User: What shape does this take?
Amino acid sequence: MNDLSRQATRLEAIEGSYDKWLLGAIIALTGVGVVMVASSSIALMSSPFYYLNRHLIFLAVGIVLAVIAARTELKSIEQYNQMLLLGCFVLLLAVFTPGLGSTVNGARRWINLGISKFQTVEAVKVLYIVWLSSYLVRFRDEVNATWPAMLKPLGVAGALVVLLLLQPDFGSSTLLLAITAGMLVLGGVNMPRMSMPVIIGLVGMSALAIIEPYRMRRITSFLDPWADQQGDGYQLSNALMAVGRGEWTGVGLGNSVQKLYYLPEAHTDFIFSVTAEEFGFLGTCVIVALYALLVGRTFWLGMRCVEMKRHFSGYIAFGIGLWISMQTFVSIGVNLGILPTKGLTLPLISSGGSSVLMTCVAMGLLLRVSYELKRAERRQAVRIGGAEDAAAEPMDEPAAPVAASVPMSAEPVAAAAPNAARGTSRLQSRVEPTFGRLS
Assistant: This one.
């Protein structure tokens, strides 16, 4: 028992570490965001640093929230999965509450907190990803085998989308559906069975885009912004002029012309156009590379978690990776004129209170995923090392299986089946890690 107690103490003392590549990409993109918010908003208010100071305040609060998320055990979060889902509906319904909900430019998407307005869908993205990750862990086998298990998250997503469309928020609705479909695919859903809801969803969202006159105008202005340059094509035409002025190396930091009352929302939705104008093609390539590093590292962490049978952590990484990658693609695509105009910010770079706060929380969760993954890998290495030491020692009686010496307090590790597949049915089969066997 003393040996078991010592091994348990040694395993519990092992800590993890945060992924340096992931942390580096987050810090770099956040730094670019501070610089570009200062540059793009300098002429928007009587005080040149109004939006910069506001951005820094929200960023400071966001960093505190990220630290809290990064220091919270994921299993503690998982046990509140149903409360998180309830929170999604409460937040989306709160915007319709008289005295609490706030309308801006005809859209009812914010709640008034007194000192600031909060866009509830930003919190819903994080809460929904965590809930869906928990659902995929609890019903992993059923999702791949039965219709009801697959349709339940689609029904939940559909209900949330209805509330979003009532605000209206077509961009976030599309993003939420895309995240749901992507996580279900990575969670092992049967692809032929999944194709029918996807087709129905695409037809439905396309119909909603066509029947609404203002959405149809966005599509036509996207196809030819120069046809009505002073009307529906005003935003996109000025964004394209900003991108074109940047050429290869840009006009220099702070020297953008389009941000001077020509390009609307230069510090939020169209901040990438100002960045392209001031830093040029080469500068934007660096930013795209940083996003590629962030998203690529996120998916790599998700894959490693699934390999280690840490499915909840893996699905959280997949969900956040899908969210950041798709929102980044849409935001950049709108600025470059390859997608119709949507009200989606550029993660970690655009100014915005609620988006900055909740993106920081998502980054904190990602760092927690990397911390717990590294901790699990280190503890597994100690177990394997202990097994090898035990095998090398001479014994007077037959050795007991190594797995039996692992204390119950240690983190769960996969059984030692050499050919057991790990991961989900949508991922490539891999060999389960083993402790080794005594001869």
